[in-house]
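Allow me, if you will, to draw on your knowledge of protein folds for a short while. The matter concerns a single protein, recorded as an amino acid sequence and a row of backbone structure tokens. Could you please explain, in whatever detail you think fit, how the structure tokens follow from the sequence? I remain grateful for any guidance, and I place the record below:

…
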Amino acid sequence: MRIGILGRLFPAPVARTINDIMAKMAAAGATPVVESGLARRMAEAGVPPGPGTEVMERAEGTGLDLVVSMGGDGSFLDSVDFLGHTPVPLLGINLGRLGFISSTRLEDVDATIIALMQRRFRIDERAALTLEGCPGFGTHNHALNEVSLHKRDGAAMISIHAHLDGRFLNTYWADGLIISTPTGSTAYSLSCGGPLLAPDCDAMVITPIAPHNLNVRPFVVRGGSTLTLQVDSRGEKYLVNLDSRSQVLEDFPLLVVRHADHRVKLVQLEGQDFLDTLRNKLNWGLDVRSSLP
């Protein structure tokens, strides 16, 4: 089994942790294939990838069976961007803090490697979003969690003229606007008052950020919708974000958001469940009266 290894790698001790995990994979009969940037940062930290590992520049043409993201949810989203349209399933091992998407615990690494080698896992397919009209992202114009527009720094609020499937929806006077997938409904959108969606819902959530009109609330639309957005900003510059990646825009192009034509494949190990993750990671429904039946 060829396992891609991705990660941001901040402190040096993380390099030793990643190297230990790759050594365990190699001992189990797998071939770890580490992304070149991560390999370079590990070497700079004094812990270069050990024997039995390969280095890759891109995911295409490497024959990967799956990819493991080392880090937190930010690293996981970077890994989604790295894979692009490549139909390789992705697993996240949490080396960060919360790890909602990257939910496999470091303490469970040994059991996880065994499960991967024995192929005791399922593949969940998640909807992604694609953004048109912002050339700065190039071909990396998709997002697993959300597309968001946001005012910049201390600028005044922006107005966003939104049309849904060609019909006028609303003008949002706000600090910004989030369009999220069901996967992203537990992220930025949730913190701005958006609803939780089950990952297999065919839907998108439109959530304003600090709207000036208090009667404007999050809105759930069908997954096949096309949303066109045009910003009007007195501050002239504003941010367009795809997950953890940003572009600063000075003009006001027509932006189009819709479901991507590919789906992101996530590895789900035995015993991993979205509802359990909600309770364990977000303390969802936590109450002294709550207990399993």
Q: What stands out?
A: The domain at 2-120+270-282 is CATH 3.40.50.10330 (Rossmann fold). The first strand starts at residue 2 and ends at 7. The chain has two domains: 2-120+270-282, 129-262. The chain is about 20% helix and 35% strand.
